[in-house]
Amino acid sequence: MGQPSHAPKDHEDHDWWRSAVIYQVYVRSFADSDGDGTGDLAGVRARLPYLAELGVDALWFSPWYPSPMKDGGYDVADYRAIDPAFGTLAEAEKLIAEARELGIRTIVDIVPNHVSDQHPWFQAASTAGPGSPERELFHFRPGRGPGGDLPPNDWPSQFAGSTEPVWTRLPDGEWYLHLFTPEQPDLNWAHPAVRQEHEDILRFWFERGVAGVRIDSAALLAKDPDLPDLATRPRPHPFVDRDELHDVYRSWRAVADHYDGVFVGEVWLPDTERFARYLRPDELHTAFNFSFLSCPWDAARLRTSIDTTLAEHAPVGAPATWVLCNHDVTRTVTRYGREDTGFDFAAKAFGVPTDLALGTRRARAAALLTLALPGAVYVYQGEELGLPEAGIPADRIQDPMYFRSGGTDPGRDGCRVPLPWAAGAPHAGFGAGEEPWLPQPAGWESYAVDRQQDDADSVLALYRRAIALRPRFGDGPLTWLPAPEGVLAFTRAEGVTCVVNLAAAPAELPARSRLLIASGPLDDEGRLPQDTAAWLTD
Ligand code: NOJ
């Protein structure tokens, strides 16, 4: 059995991002050091040893900037500062440096499609009035119909399930575009000042030592200047995946290359050829693989998803990414315990039954599957603890997705609940003071880090061991091995094999192989039971 190694990673490894394990930190819910009920940077700094022990290569911080939190921080009021509830810029710099000392790089989250309505640019545009240069930084238009009382076009909200308009009218009569909430006005990316500002923001963070940038809503920035109705079926699409975007990202790449920085784009596009365009050598380094995240727990479909992913990345030479969950989607353990194990924003509903024991077994197997695949793997905070989606009482829900759907979509708070660190401590060790900003459900302490820490069978132990063993797969390509229906088996050279059994019948493991790690116990005959994965070596 290979021994986990926690030695600091090679500081000069320029290709680190091609096979990295990247841990997503949602600061607000990570660890609350000052007892105000909200996680903070000091909380993250105190837990860096935990993250180093987990063995991750980088931390991606969801937006940590000053924000009115109308959309969990994705409404940014100042891109060059830290929200006072989280800490200070000086503290962020310390955090970046301390993490780096432990071999952990930092990725910040930039939100270029929109700003907060409290951002100085929008404040100025609101007061400057119609026809002003300040308004040209956004999409302001007169309304339609008598008195201009109707929104300028028919675009739908980008929050699935939302029936709310994407236009809001100011008292002076003009409307402004916001693909998300009214507090998130969209920027006009045809304006040179918008481009200039974002390149400066990138430099600002690269100068502070960050290694990468996650780009929010990366395929939505460019808009058809005519803002045509979707009902007229305009082609190309007026706001999704427009060709002008590639020019933006080419200039971003030039900035990143100067600092040896990398990008990961949030690109939700079903068309794999269009998706791969963002990953051309002079554009983004990587993009999230949402088709894999959305894929049901089904061997044939997972295999197709993996093959399609690898095939779409190959021509552009970009590594794939593997994601099972993040701060926007139903937690893996809950999703895999349901009848429909896929993920679809449009299908989210309250009260869907789930079998958490089944979901956990599958999530453990999925962890070994993803960590064995070629490319980078994302782990969302709490995934390594096997946290389920939490039910949030209606009067505590904060997510605008819930409100903008008229209360039909449960929203995303259930995957954002503050982490449990210590079973016996107040608020399960998240913080010693006030009630956490989102309530932790009954029984949350059973997932606490200190409960899992010394338990060799815990989800945490599985993640730690698997991340430490992952380099055994080397950087070879994936080769499928013959396997019965419902079983996925592949190798990546160097004599290491991953087998995942999704079939009802137990699967034989390759003869003469040595077990490195398994997501659950083998049966009495040494076979791999259903919903279990194993890594083996010759
Ligand atoms: C994607 C982010 O992940 C999500 O949380 C946010 O609501 C939207 N973009 C809008 O910024």
Automatic annotation (TrEMBL):
Residues 125-153 are annotated as: Disordered. SMART domains: Aamy. GO terms for biological process: oligosaccharide catabolic process. One of its GO terms (molecular function) is alpha-amylase activity. Gene3D superfamilies: Glycosidases (3.20.20.80), Oligo-1,6-glucosidase, Domain 2 (3.90.400.10). Residues 24-416 form the Glycosyl hydrolase family 13 catalytic domain. CDD domains: AmyAc_OligoGlu_TS. SUPFAM superfamilies: (Trans)glycosidases. Transmembrane segments: none annotated. Belongs to the glycosyl hydrolase 13 family. PANTHER family: ALPHA-AMYLASE FAMILY MEMBER, NEUTRAL AND BASIC AMINO ACID TRANSPORT PROTEIN RBAT. This is Alpha-glucosidase.
